[in-house]
Amino acid sequence: MSTTMSFSPLTALRLTLPALALGAGMGMAQAQESADGADSAEVEVLAEINGETITARELDQLVSQQTQGQSEIPPPQRRQFLEEIINLMLLAQAGDAAGIDENPDVAAQLNNDRRRTLAQGFVRQLTETEPVAESVLRDRYDEIYGGEAPREYKARHILVSDGEQAAALIDRLDSGEAFVELAGQYSEDGTSRDGGDLGWFAPGDMVEPFSAAVAELEPGEVTDEPVETRFGFHVIRLDDTRETDAPAFSDVAGQLRMSIVNERIQAELGSLREEADIDYEAAWAQPDNG
């Protein structure tokens, strides 16, 4: 998809869905690099501040986060990172003493940080237990690129939260009204500023119902009924298509691996949701309310 397109809920899938896998992947790399010394790192205390300890593992995690995964840094830099943790700990201790954790906003952030950390740890465990084999990557590559030349699409959409409204917009388009004008007036995402323009994208860039609907269109055609996705109801117009060269396996192996990991996360999440007791307390949050 074009890097200049306006933000849309469709692109949110590509931004948020890989987040857990990406965080877990970074953790996997760090864990692999320090596996030999894991046991000693867990108990090695580097400093004690007002009775609270800082371990080598905690320092290693901070270094990895701040250096994008680097584990070996010069001793002076390592000491700087240790001083950073000490400063962080002193401020945290002061905040704890001041009862900052009782502030509702702070409590909410602490809860979300804890959930994110546990979720990434669980995802990391999933990926370590069943790593994506190269044969699986090769099969996925052949599935996507082994047939006819890959095709990209250029399309516009109008996204609304109500199916009847989407159907009414299709009727108005059939009556001759301009797609760009209706998208600018009614689309409920950032693409409204550009007349619903989504730029160029590959089928895998979009959620399945959307990409499947686009693939059925000829340039200039509009979907004859609304396309429902998790984001709402879409009215789609295909503007153009183009064939692209298949990339080398090495160029897309990482992307394919991430895609497969995401699918596994989604499958696991689907099972967890089926087994979970989810009670929506807020009226607006009810699944049937759009």
Automatic annotation (TrEMBL):
User: Which SUPFAM superfamilies does the UniProt record give?
Assistant: FKBP-like (SSF54534), Triger factor/SurA peptide-binding domain-like (SSF109998)
Q: Name one Pfam family in it.
A: Rotamase
Gene Ontology MF terms: peptidyl-prolyl cis-trans isomerase activity
Keyword Isomerase belongs to the record: yes
Catalytic activity, per the record? [protein]-peptidylproline (omega=180) = [protein]-peptidylproline (omega=0)
Lineage: superkingdom:
Bacteria
- Which keywords label this protein? Isomerase, Rotamase, Signal
Where the record annotates domain PpiC, the positions are 150-240
What family is this protein classified in?
Belongs to the PpiC/parvulin rotamase family.
* PANTHER family according to UniProt: PEPTIDYL-PROLYL CIS-TRANS ISOMERASE HP_0175-RELATED (PTHR47245:SF2), PEPTIDYLPROLYL ISOMERASE (PTHR47245)
Name of the protein in its database record: peptidylprolyl isomerase
The record lists the organism as Spiribacter aquaticus
